[in-house]
Design a protein that fits this description.
This protein has 183 residues and is of the alpha+beta class. The protein has six helices and eight strands; from the N terminus they run E-E-H-H-H-E-E-H-E-H-E-H-E-E. Strand 3 and strand 4 form a beta hairpin. The longest helix has 16 residues.
């Protein structure tokens, strides 16, 4: 399958995560929660980060992709067969992107020291290829926090907006997107 291939961008190797990448991937994710998002780890929403092996490496419909340089994980992108949840998102979005047939992109994070190399874009492309090669998916969905620097323009360049919830005071102020499944 295509998701087993490695790609190179300069000094970085991009690939499906291996057991040796788990600790580095977890560090990128936790650093993002604490340093970028400012809220830290929350077991309600981030259990996959502690259980990376179970969440991504042991489920054939889930995947974690990493960019590695000199043995250090610099960036992550994950796919899970889970639609969004309500709360914090509107019920109509949950209904439109049901778990099981929706591939949701998660943990698209690049360590600050490794940004501006095209790592996130390349990892998202690998994740989308994985979805295309995996039976049972009908959509690729994601949501992002537009308050995070660079997040909104990045996703607008790669995906189609489904709903901007910033004016919806009953739900998370996320922007919801869909990416076509590559054929």
């Amino acid at each position: 399958m295509q998701h087993n291939l490695e790609h190179r961008i300069g000094e970085y190797t991009l690939r499906a995560a291996q057991p040796s990448d788990v600790d580095g991937a977890r560090k990128v994710m936790l650093d993002t929660f604490y340093k970028e998002f400012g809220h830290g780890y929350d077991s309600t929403w981030h259990a996959d980060v502690i259980g990376i092996e179970h969440a991504y490496l042991q489920n054939p419909r889930h995947a974690l992709f990493v960019a590695v340089r000199n043995g250090e994980v610099a960036a992550t992108t994950a796919v899970r067969a889970n639609g969004p949840s309500s709360p914090p998102h509107p019920q109509w979005i949950v209904d439109h992107y049901p778990s099981g047939e929706t591939a949701q992109l998660f943990r698209v994070y690049v360590d600050r020291a490794h940004r501006r190399h095209g790592l996130a874009r390349a990892l998202v492309a690998m994740a989308c290829d994985f979805v295309a090669d995996t039976d049972g998916y009908s959509a690729i969905y994601l949501h992002t926090n537009p308050a995070i620097e660079g997040a909104e323009p990045f996703w607008r360049a790669m995906a189609k907006e489904i709903y901007d919830a910033r004016g919806d005071h009953q739900h998370s102020p996320a922007i919801h997107f869909e990416i076509p499944i590559p054929r």
